[in-house]
Amino acid sequence: MKYQVAKFAISGTSDKQTACDLLAALSAEAGFETFEENEEGLTAWVQKEQFDKDILDEVIATFPLVGTTIEYTIEDAEDRNWNEKWEETGWEPIVIDDKCIIHDTLHPTPATQQPSNMLDITIDAKLAFGTGNHETTRMIVRELMNYDLEGKRVLDCGCGTGILSIVACKRGAKEAVGYDIDEWSVENARHNAELNGVNNIDILHGNASVISHISGVFDIVMANINRNILLEDMAAMREVVNPGGEIILSGFYTEDGMALAERAGHLGMRLLRTDSENNWCMLVFAADA
Fold first, then answer.
1. Assign residue 239 a region: left if phi > 0, alpha if psi is -120 to 50, beta otherwise?
2. Distance, CA of 244 to CA of 259 (rounded, Å)
3. What is the pLDDT of residue 208?
4. How does residue 278 score in pLDDT terms, banded at 50, 70 and 90?
5. What pTM was estimated for this model as a whole?
6. How far is CA 22 from CA 40, 235, 255, in A?
7. How far apart are alpha carbons 80 and 93 in whole angstroms?
C-alpha cells in the first residue's frame, strides 16, 4: 500500500497537547490513520488513495481551538513495511470475554490459557489491519461471539487480515465473502484463512464496487472502516442484506455515530445496539424488510 506523510506545525495555543489530540481525531475524517507527536506538532500517515485534501483543509479552517494556527506539508512516504519490527516481535495473546483467544504465529496459545470451549484464532499480520489489538476489532469479535452464526452467510467489508471472517466461519457460518482495496490485505487474509484451517472464505480485491458482482445476499454484513467510507458505501452494503439481517459497523469515533445512524435510518436500517471502547464506537443495525 502507498502512504503519504503529513507534518503539521501547530502554533498560537498554549495547550499544544489538546491541539494535537483534536487534530488527530478530526484528521481521521480525511483518511489519516497513524499519528506521532513531534516538536512542532504532529506527524500523520494516510493511505494515498484514502486521502481527502478538501476535508483536511476544512478541518484546519474550522479548528475548534480558538487562536490555533495549523500549517502542513504532505509528501509520499518511504515505501516500506511499516509493520516490520512489530511482525518480528509479535504481540501477546488477546483474550476476549474468555470466549476467544487471538494470537500470532510467534506466540502459540499456552494450554493453560485455553479452556476447551475457547475459540482459538491465529493471525499472521502482514501489512494488514486486524489483530484484535485495536478496540474496533475487539468489539466486532465480541459481537460475533454472541451470535448464532450456524449456516449464516457473512460479508466482510474492508477485511484486512480476515480476522472477522475467520471468527465467523469458525463459529459456524456457512460462507464468508470479504474484500479489501489493499492487495497486501487480500493475500494476508487468504493466508490467515489457511492458517486457521478455514476453507469457506472468498477474498476479493477491490472497493465496495465488488459488492454488485457478488451473487446472493447475506445474513450479516460487517465493516470496520473509517466514517467517510462507511457513509459512502453503506447503501451498497444495505442492498445485499437479507430482510431481518444485521449490519455491524465500526472503525469510527463515538462522536461520528450520530451521522452514521442518520444515514442508516434513511436506508431503512434500524439501530439495535451500540458499544464503545476508548471513544471508538460500534453500531449494530437491523435491515428491516
1. alpha
2. 22
3. 92
4. confident
5. 0.75
6. 15, 30, 12
7. 26
Length of the chain: 289
Output the 3-class SS for the chain. Answer: CCEEEEEEEEECCCCHHHHHHHHHHHHHHHCEEEEEECCCEEEEEEEHHHCCHHHHHHHHHCCCCCCCEEEEEEEECCCCCCCHHHHHHCCCCEEECCCEEEECCCCCCCHHHCCCCCEEEECCCCCCCCCCCCHHHHHHHHHHHCCCCCCCEEEEECCCCCHHHHHHHHCCCCEEEEEECCHHHHHHHHHHHHHCCCCCEEEEECCHHHHHHCCCCEEEEEEECCHHHHHHHHHHHHHCEEEEEEEEEEEEEHHHHHHHHHHHHHCCEEEEEEEEECCEEEEEEEECC
Give the phi and the psi of residue 141 in degrees, each rounded to 5.
-60, -45
| C-alpha span between 218 and 172 (Å, rounded) | 14
Q: Which of 179, 173, 166 is nearest to 237 (CA)?
A: 179
Which residue is listed with cell 455491524? 248
Query: Rounded CA gap, 259 and 101, in Å?
Result: 33
Q: How confident is the model at residue 158 (pLDDT cuts 50, 70, 90)?
A: very high
**φ, ψ dihedrals at 149, nearest 5°:** -100, 0
